[in-house]
């Protein structure tokens, strides 16, 4: 069996961040992605039918690589604010956002309209890659 590559790890991180579920087949070194909240009765499910069938026909061949939970995502925002944002006024604004209602949406909106948007994208992407790497390391035998 082949081991998972660095490019595959990056691909997994990107797809998980887009809200897709990721499955890895260690037998053939293939990745499979399916929308997390796919309504199987919806017409959109037809677009994913091949992936659904592949997973359904061989469930024991696949290992799910899970996305971070909401508390992990919250930690990403907090870590970014602590370590990357150097403007103390903006940093305090972000901390206030994180302490109030709808922190995810308001943080995203604030970052996207700031000079830190590129930094946020890189920080979050690197964090997601490390997340996937740590999951693989924890379950190394299953991935090889």
Describe the structure.
The chain is mainly alpha-helical. It folds into two domains: 6-67, no CATH class; 70-132, no CATH class. 58% of the residues lie in helices and 11% in strands. It has seven helices and three strands. It has helices spanning 6-17, 49-57, 70-83, 88-99, 103-112, 117-138, 140-143, and strands at 20-25, 30-35, 62-65. A three-stranded antiparallel β-sheet has the order 2-1-3, with helices on both faces. β1 and β2 (30-35) form a beta hairpin. α3 runs antiparallel to α4 (88-99). The model has no long low-confidence stretch (mean pLDDT 88).
Quick rundown:
This protein has about 140 residues and is mostly helical. The protein contains seven helices and three strands, in the order αββαβααααα.
What's the topology here?
Elements: H1 6-17, E1 20-25, E2 30-35, H2 49-57, E3 62-65, H3 70-83, H4 88-99, H5 103-112, H6 117-138, H7 140-143
Antiparallel strand pairs: 1-2, 1-3
Helix pairs in contact: 1-6, 3-4, 4-5
